[in-house]
Each structure stands twice: as C-alpha cells, then as structure tokens.
Amino acid sequence: MNTSFASDKLIRYAVAYVFITSGLMKLVSAELANGFMSLGLPYPQIMLKLVILLEVGCGILILVNKAVKNAVIPLIAIMIAALLLTKIPTLHTGFVQFAFNARLDIVMLALLIILYKRHPK
C-alpha cells in the first residue's frame, strides 16, 4: 500500500470527523449555538446555519473524497475566523493559554492546507 495514499485517507477521515461532528453539535446543542451567535457576527442565525451547512457538507465531501480541494476552501476560512474571533482574544491570558485553546484550530488548519495541496482540482 502506498504510504502517501494511506496518510491522505487518514487525514481526510480525521478532518471529516471533526467538521461533521462540529457542525452537528452546533445543530443540536443550544449552548454551542448560543456561543456562536454571541460572537458579534452580522446575521448570527443565518451565519450559524451557513457554518453548519458548510461544516457538515464539506466534511461529507472530504469523507467520500469528492471535490476535496474545493471543499477545504470554506473550511479554511471557518478555521481562520475561529482563530481570529475566539482564540486571538485569549492572548491576554498568556501565550501558553492561547496555544492550548487554539491547538485544535491550528492542527485542523494545517491538515486542511495539506489536503488542499495534495488533491487535484
């Protein structure tokens, strides 16, 4: 088995798992939905539904290996927004606390970039 192919599959499965579960939790958890809507984004209910749709939809596309390069683009934007809106503000508590809070966001962003670079359009 080609090691690169196996690692690509593992990365796809991990990324899909995180985004699909994240989108579904925003859909079923009032606490998560309220936290999202309190970020100060314009049209928070529409933005929440859009993010849920993108996370679940793009996660499924990545899972089934369809349009992966196109599917990671909105997820990269979501991860950058998550870092800027929810993690950067924690820098005042210290860099180590920020690094801890941002660990999943940074790892997911790196994995999305790897998927983007490795998949043809």
Automatic annotation (TrEMBL):
State its location(s).
Answer: Membrane
InterPro entries noted in UniProt: DoxX
Keyword NADP annotated = no
Its membrane topology, per UniProt? Answer: Multi-pass membrane protein
- Which N-terminal stretch is annotated as signal sequence? none
| Gene Ontology CC terms, in alphabetical order | membrane
Q: What is its main location?
A: membrane
Q: Where are the transmembrane segments?
A: 46-64, 71-89, 95-116
Keyword Transcription regulation in record: no
Keyword field:
Membrane, Transmembrane, Transmembrane helix
This chain's protein is named DoxX family protein
The protein's organism comes out as: Neobacillus vireti LMG 21834
Taxonomic placement = Bacteria, Bacillati, Bacillota, Bacilli, Bacillales
